[in-house]
Design goal:
Elements: E1 11-15, H1 20-29, E2 37-41, E3 47-51, E4 59-63, H2 70-86, E5 91-96, H3 115-126, E6 130-134, E7 149-152, H4 155-166, E8 174-178, H5 184-194, E9 198-204, E10 212-217, E11 224-232, H6 236-247, E12 252-260, H7 266-272, E13 278-281, E14 295-298, H8 301-312
Parallel strand pairs: 1-4, 4-5, 5-6, 6-7, 8-9, 8-11, 11-12, 12-13, 13-14
Antiparallel strand pairs: 2-3, 9-10
Helix pairs in contact: 1-8, 2-3, 4-5
Length: about 325
């Protein structure tokens, strides 16, 4: 249980329907229970929020990843924030372990929306005082908000220790691989923390959710390889990268990411792929039908709990990743 400094504000953790398990784990790590609220729907599909305890003057943390169904979960978050604001909460932090619409962060072609910015505006307009999130697909999304954003990282405190222990006896033939050029900074940090070499998959996207591997930059022959990404959606890039790496002589291929979106044909693709193990964090709830032997889930709850404690006590969050 994390020790809290008493400064007159009561901390309360609430959850929507997106990932109540993670919210409960975060609350437990803080020595709290989930706040007494219910999020449902009226008969016409509109979101209905009931709060059964006072939040006046409280430091409220609303845990709600905007995962599939994205629009329902986003509306739940917005309406919960509005309800807490109107109930006179002292401060409201939107805890968004997975930030939906993050891939729509720029105009890729004429007349494209920038939906990540729109979502940021909606969250602030609803009444959130700050946002706590993890591994945004595009770091510049932090600048879309006009309220403070604490951006947590899944690699240093969770994934690196896991693989450092897993491969502690054979680091000499271990390489970390970035699945595309956009992930190089994230994966370089991973490689530096583990003190292992880095390789990069050069790919192109003919269209959305499809990719073609053009080349692999770096040495993977006769090595155990770990593909590192921020999210895995349809798993097309992941599986194609794994196949290309094996074709170039790698011994074994592993993979990890923060957000297991796993939509469309992701599960059968991963099941049929040569990937020995895929490690994801629980920022998105993994339903029973997606739980297969190759997928291992690690908890992000301790990191979120530590960050919430620091926010509550007005301490630095960035020192979590020093």
């Amino acid at each position: 249980m994390i020790n809290m400094i008493t400064h007159g504000k009561n901390i309360k953790v609430f959850t929507g329907n997106a990932n109540p398990g993670l919210a409960a784990d975060i609350a437990a790590a803080l020595g709290r229970t989930i706040g007494n609220a219910r999020v449902g729907k009226f008969s016409n599909g509109e979101i209905k929020v009931d709060i059964f305890e006072t939040v006046r003057g409280s430091d409220v943390f609303v845990v709600q990843p905007t995962s599939d169904p994205v629009n329902d979960h986003l509306m739940e978050l917005l309406i919960m924030i509005d309800a807490f604001k109107r109930a006179s909460a002292g401060r409201i932090t939107a805890v968004i372990p997975y930030y939906g619409y993050a891939r729509q962060d720029r105009k890729a072609k004429a007349r494209d929306p920038i939906s990540a910015k729109l979502v940021a505006d909606l969250i602030a307009t609803a009444g959130a005082d700050r946002v706590l999130t993890m591994d945004l697909h595009a770091a510049q999304i932090q600048g879309f908000f006009n309220i403070p954003v604490d951006h947590l990282l899944g690699v240093p405190p969770i994934l690196v220790p896991y693989y450092a222990e897993k491969f502690k006896n054979n680091k000499d033939d271990f390489t970390v691989v970035s699945p595309d050029l956009g992930s190089v900074s994230r994966v370089r940090s991973f490689a530096e923390r583990m003190d292992v070499p880095l390789a990069i998959v050069d790919k192109r996207r003919p269209k959305a959710n499809e990719s073609e591997v053009m080349n692999v930059i770096g040495e993977v022959k006769d090595r155990k390889v770990l593909l590192v990404d921020d999210m895995i959606d349809t798993a097309g890039t992941l599986v194609n990268s794994a196949a290309a790496i094996l074709e170039r002589g790698a011994k074994e291929v592993y993979a990890c990411c923060t957000h297991g979106v796993l939509s469309g044909e992701a599960i059968p693709r991963i099941e049929a792929s040569p990937i020995k193990e895929l490690v994801i964090l629980d920022t998105i709830a993994l339903p029973p039908e997606k739980k297969i032997g190759k997928i291992k889930v690690l908890s992000a709850a301790p990191v979120f709990a530590e960050a919430i404690e620091r926010i509550y006590n007005d301490l630095s969050v960035s020192t979590l990743f020093a």
